[in-house]
Amino acid sequence: MQSINGTNITNSTEPSSVEQYKEPEALYIFRVTLFAVIISASIIGNSMVFYAVWTIPSRKPLSYHLVANMAFAEILSSVCLAVMFASWQNPTKAVLQEAACVLNTFQVIALLVVTYSLAAIAFYRYRFIVNPLPRGPSVKKIIILTITGLWLLSFAIAFPFFIGLRFSNGRCIELPITNNEYYAISRFILNYALPYVIMLASYGAVAWNLKRRIVQIEERARNSTVAVELEDLCNQSEDRGEKGSSCAYFHYVLIS
């Protein structure tokens, strides 16, 4: 079989027979140039983001560290993809083929870190609005544990690839441990479904809390306006000498 990133991976239980065709030279140049531009932009752009966050002198919130962590994972993913693309263009070079087979797992880990970093940023924004994290030495511990946890979780999900991909006879062989429907379903849930559920739930809760606060602010503003109007009416009635029940009623409304 052939993976989505272009690395030639052969199922150990099925023979592979792919019919090749001659690619036009113009299309080849366009494809390679476009890929080089995208990968270069990714590496340079994410390097600038990582450097900008890293060099901020003041204390950085958790979201800044998560963005830097995501930028580093994007750089790792881009480097892995560059090697895989080179191996795809040079199928006869065993060194590139073996490197691509090894880096395939690290590229999966990097993509997992990016996805879970986005989910962590969404959850952090929810906590920041509803229940902000405490300031102090504990924040640094939370940052370290969060980023370490993201990488360990991603490594655990992609671990079967470390033992399920083997380079043999110029090909990257995929063993049954990674080529089965149970692992595919589990990986889909952990790779995509779970992070996106976290993001949807977090941003949905943020939107609901913001809407509730807006309603509360509008209610307080409306009550304040009514109170001012009632006080003006009371003052006007006193100026006209209409003391007694009307003014007392207005004061009662203001107090209540």
From TrEMBL:
<keyword id="KW-0812">Transmembrane</keyword>
<protein>
    <submittedName>
        <fullName>5-hydroxytryptamine receptor 1A-alpha</fullName>
    </submittedName>
</protein>
<dbReference type="InterPro" id="IPR000276">
    <property type="entry name" value="GPCR_Rhodpsn"/>
</dbReference>
<dbReference type="Pfam" id="PF00001">
    <property type="entry name" value="7tm_1"/>
</dbReference>
<keyword id="KW-1133">Transmembrane helix</keyword>
<feature type="transmembrane region" description="Helical">
    <location>
        <begin position="66"/>
        <end position="88"/>
    </location>
</feature>
<feature type="domain" description="G-protein coupled receptors family 1 profile">
    <location>
        <begin position="45"/>
        <end position="256"/>
    </location>
</feature>
<keyword id="KW-0297">G-protein coupled receptor</keyword>
<feature type="transmembrane region" description="Helical">
    <location>
        <begin position="28"/>
        <end position="54"/>
    </location>
</feature>
<feature type="transmembrane region" description="Helical">
    <location>
        <begin position="188"/>
        <end position="210"/>
    </location>
</feature>
<feature type="transmembrane region" description="Helical">
    <location>
        <begin position="108"/>
        <end position="130"/>
    </location>
</feature>
<dbReference type="GO" id="GO:0004930">
    <property type="term" value="F:G protein-coupled receptor activity"/>
</dbReference>
<keyword id="KW-0807">Transducer</keyword>
<dbReference type="GO" id="GO:0005886">
    <property type="term" value="C:plasma membrane"/>
</dbReference>
<keyword id="KW-0472">Membrane</keyword>
<dbReference type="InterPro" id="IPR017452">
    <property type="entry name" value="GPCR_Rhodpsn_7TM"/>
</dbReference>
<keyword id="KW-0675">Receptor</keyword>
<feature type="transmembrane region" description="Helical">
    <location>
        <begin position="142"/>
        <end position="168"/>
    </location>
</feature>
